[in-house]
Amino acid sequence: MITARRMWRKSLNVVMLTLTGVAALGVVSVLFLILGYLIWNGGASLSWNFFTQLPKPVGESGGGMANAIVGSLKLLLLAAVMGLPVGLLAGVYLAEFGGHTFSFIIRYTTDLLNGVPSIVIGIFAYSLVVLPVKHFSALAGGVALAMMVIPITVRSTEEFLRAVPGSLREGAMALGASKWKTIATVVLPAASGGILTGMLLALARVAGETAPLLFTAFSNRFWSEGWGQPIASLPVMIYTYAIAPYDDWHRQAWAAGLVLLGLVLLSNLGARFILARTKVV
Amino acid sequence: MSAAATITAHEAPPQSGPRALFRRLKHGDELAHLITLTFAAAILLLTSMLVYELWVNSHLSRTKFGWIFFWTRVWDPNFDNFGAAPFIYGTLVTSAVALLIAVPLGLASAIFLSELAPRKISDTISFLIDLLAAVPSVIYGLLGIFIVVPLMRNTLGPFLIHSFGNIPYLGALFRPPNYGVGFLTAGIVLAIMVVPYIISVSREVLLTVPREQREAALALGATRWESTWKVVLPWARAGIMGSIFLALARALGETMAVTMVIGNSARISPSLFSPGDTIASTIANQFTEATGDLYLSALIELGLVLFLITFILNGMARILIVVTERGGGRPA
């Protein structure tokens, strides 16, 4: 009787622990499945034309997504210019100046902003930028992406500034530096590797965002000049091409997916690499 | 005491007005404080503006339909009649399917990573899972359309209908027709997308459980599994709930992948194979073609609803996670 119970407990132990391992392996294998499918389907359709040509009119095969690649870069530039400074300085405030209650409120709001669905951010940018001028623009898309860059940058900046040991600050102050001089010349440089990594990750995260661009930056089958016109981007192109009924467009969607995923994963790997090299003290 | 008072008075003459402010700013510290404070406050301002814009721009729809908006089952742009019920239903069903799959899978993986795997392997796998979380949602949609939908149409769907279709009650969930797109497909894709969040947060929480707790259970003769199931998990349950809320908030608000595989049809049907729509997918699909102010306003009200739900869920999740990580979890 006792041995039967013991047997049951032991086998339950083995079975359940094995299952947890199987689950973990299963989840990780999804990543490799995704990579494999994209390389298999996208690699075949990837050509030089993809990077250099405009999309062909509907019905003609061939063409590329040069405008969408440049468009994505322009949108990212806007997001970086508008979002990163806000995120950086707010992060400095939280780590170096913040009091108790106000900092708590800012931190909490930042986390909540981070959790707002991207489509809702799209509506916000639409009503802020598109509605007043009545047309879609690269600027509106940039505002939407910047809204998503800010919370990520704030939290990573604060985290890396906090990791700088207090003795460095005390050392600088003992030498007579004022507080802001200490921050600007000692603390920020010490944490710069981490902060830049955080920024890179924030940009990588929004590079793949589609929903907030659908009705802000919209799309464009031609080159978009300046910042006030609708502009194409890789994620929106993937969406449009994937749901269209043409085989040639599907192939291009796979190719664009491979390029986008490659960019995102490479920046994540790069960030990881930089972090490992520049451990804060 | 009077000496101290004189010194202070000497160093900072009782001078007020713009000149004094300017002198203090010139010192640098105050200025830096002020600038960074402004940017931090900008985040508060942006968030309030977000709420304000959603509230104001949904005014038409809110005043016309009132609370009935939430249980009207018709969404008919041609006759300016808008009800959110089909989308709320679709959002809840797809998220429920996603959590039913993702929670056991994610929790099991987190247990493996925190309790069994050696630290090095655990860290590597966690990094790969973080990469999975970084995959853009439109890529999940792409794979959904070309891999999961055919799989559901040709293999998985017929199998489920054959196995469960005739069981009373439960069978209603698995009724043909099966087009490949629909609630179940969307739920499966969502599950894959939210699993990384459950794993990484749960793993962190499980790692904060004190080692003595495990050792005490093992010393009493418990097997490894028993110590995990009866001691470690109860200790961490609030944080694990937090990770599930976080995943739920993601699932509710997820747009692109769902839009690409759910079939986009405003209907309420018990069958999981039925095409449907979620709040987010409706906004994504119809926003650019919304003609008329009331139509647009109704879509923005959908956005407001989505915002409020995720706002509340995220808030609750943060609290639960913080409580557990500070060691507030009670031993069972």
As a percent range, the share of strand residues of chain B is under 5%
Give the strand order of the largest sheet of chain B, numbering strands 1, 2, ... along the chain: 1-2
Order of helical and strand elements of chain A = HHHHHHHHHH
Biggest sheet of chain B: strands, sense, closure?
Answer: 2 strands, antiparallel
Could you state the oligomeric state of the chains shown? Answer: heterodimer
Return the average pLDDT of chain A rounded to an integer.
91
User: Total number of β-strand segments of chain B?
Assistant: 2
Beta content of chain A: under 5%
Helix content of chain B: over 70%
In total, the number of strands of chain A is 0
Radius of gyration of chain B: 27 Å
How large is the count of helical segments of chain B? Answer: 14
> What does the overall shape of chain A look like?
globular
Output the radius of gyration of chain A.
Answer: 24 Å
**Low-confidence parts of chain A:** none
Overall pLDDT level of chain B: 88
Instruction: Determine the number of helices of chain A (DSSP H or I, runs of at least 4 residues).
Output: 10
Question: Can you summarize this structure?
Answer:
The complex is a heterodimer of chains A (281) and B (332). By secondary structure, chain A is mainly alpha-helical. In chain A, α3 packs parallel to α6, α4 crosses α6 and α7 runs antiparallel to α8.
